[in-house]
Amino acid sequence: MATIKDVAERVGVSITLVSRTLNNQKGVKPESRAKILQAMRELNYVPNGLARSLVLQKTNTIGIVLDSLSSPFVSKLIKGLEKGVAEFDKEGIYNIIYCSSNGDFQKKLRHLSFLTQGRVDGILIYGSLVTDDEIIMNLSQSGFPFALIENDLEAVNANKVVIDNVDGAYRATQHLIELGHRRIAHVTGNINLKITLERLSGYMRALQDARIPIDPSLIIYPDFSAPLDEDEPVEAHDVWSINTFLKCGYDSSNKLMDQPDRPSAIFFATDISAFGAIKALGERGLSVPDDVSIFGFDDERPADFDCYFEPISTVRQPLELAGYTGIKQVINSLRDPNAPKERIVLKTDLIIRNSCKEKV
Q: Which residues contact 134 (CB under 8 A, 6 or more apart)?
């Protein structure tokens, strides 16, 4: 493989002059530049990207840190990221590196350590795990450029894209109340996520504003960390897997239906948990919405998860727009490090379908 020294010898110039040509620096005559570039083509010389990044102190790379690339929701986010890169990086300057930690604190620390040691120019962190706060605080103190999606950490001055989960959950619960339901249950998502707490808060606020007492027995906190079966090692369990969401919804629905005064409606923090619940209801001979009204969150299609029933009423969150906006913030901050930080709040949409009906 040809080296920079080979190029210099072919042209009869110094290595320094070849390096200046590679980095588009001043001090290279046009005729010398042409000869050097010609020699590179003849020798099939490929510049060492890491070496160039050390010289320029730029990698033209952005790191994306997520909890799981296999998470059901991530494809929409990635679509928005790609759309944003295409629009805000028309010159094709930036490369993207994805790092998935599966919610593992130590693994996420290793990813960030790897990325911030000269591998990327900026980082976009997606997710709202409570344990991320310590990592983000440390990153903020280091001065490294980054932006957040779904984590509204007040103590940190950074670009942020926040989805209004509280309002979405509030309006979903309010819709069920307007249909005449009073015993409305809520099945939460992973309680270690801030967005789960936000959706729970929206549910409770809607009940309080309607003067409906909050019944703790109607709030189910599924254990997303529990193995799917007795033979599965705890350390091998994937808390982000589709089967975990389905099982949590299935088990939660059975707990609610076992109550003497069971709810007439259930609001789920995730659609996929709702899909598992609908399966459990069907096994009991109960139908949706005739026996139980179901409202979800995320706007997922049942068929995508091998669930063959009609899509449910849900809260559609703008994940594609979140990815698009987040990558725009990162690119803008790399181009202008002194630009003021932005906190952008994205609203959700209520999608009403046939999984809810009036309480008779």
A: none
Q: What is the number of alpha carbons within 13 Å of residue 97 lying toward its C-beta?
A: 16
CA–CA dist 310, 3 (Å, integer)? 61
With bands split at pLDDT 50, 70 and 90, how would you rate the model's confidence at 54? very low
CATH architecture of the domain formed by 165-317: 3-Layer(aba) Sandwich (3.40)
- Topology (CATH) of 61-163+319-347: Rossmann fold (3.40.50)
Identical topology for domains 61-163+319-347 and 165-317: yes
Three-class SS of residue 313? strand
Residues in a beta bridge with 293: 265
Q: Where in the chain are the domains?
A: 4-56, 61-163+319-347, 165-317
User: CA–CA distance from 233 to each of 222, 237, 238 (Å)?
Assistant: 19, 7, 10
Give the CATH H-level superfamily of domain 4-56.
Answer: lambda repressor-like DNA-binding domains (1.10.260.40)
Tokens found for residue 111: 């990813």
Which of 195, 192, 200, 199 minimizes the C-alpha distance to 152?
Answer: 195
What tokens appear for 245 in the block? 């969401």
Q: pLDDT tens digits for 309-338?
A: 999 999 999 999 999 999 999 999 999 989
Place of tokens 């007439």: 264
DSSP bridge pairs for 149: 126, 161
Helix (H) or strand (E) holding 147: strand 146-149
Q: What is the pLDDT of residues 233-288, one digit of tens each?
A: 555 567 778 899 999 999 999 999 999 999 999 999 999 999 999 999 999 999 99
